[in-house]
């Protein structure tokens, strides 16, 4: 093997390594941005959950003042099915009586 062939192989390997390094840098930047976006989204979800809890507490207090039973209102409401994930799977199977297929009073 001559030295020029070896030099070309080293140059090609160097070029491939540099391109791979650039691609890795781009991917690392994208991953960092994705992580930042995820943290922002997580904080927004936490804020929304807190606000919803506040609103629910206020609505329940108003309902109590008006003499309404919140659970009865929720049972008769035409609500969409809750999403099925690990956190809500147990909750949604506890109340299967919220089916709205039989009552169409609206």
Written overview of the protein:
Keywords: Coiled coil. Residues 66-106 are annotated as: Disordered. The protein is mainly alpha-helical. It has a domain at 3-66. It is built from three helices and no strands. The chain has helices at residues 3-65, 70-76, 86-94. The radius of gyration is 29 Å and the shape is rod-shaped. It starts with a helix and ends in a 12-residue tail after the last helix.
Would you count the extended β strands for me? 0
From N to C, what is the helix and strand string? Answer: HHH
Task: Report the sheet with the most strands, covering strand number, pairing sense and barrel closure.
Answer: none
What is the general shape? rod-shaped
Mean pLDDT: 85
End-to-end C-alpha gap: 86 Å
Question: What percentage of the residues does DSSP assign to strands (E)?
Answer: under 5%
CA-based gyration radius: 29 Å
Structural class: mainly alpha
Estimate percent helicity.
over 70%
List the uncertain runs.
98-106
The DSSP helix count reads 3
Region (Disordered): 66-106
InterPro entries: DUF5798 (IPR043816)
Biased composition (Acidic residues): 66-75, 83-106
Pfam families: DUF5798
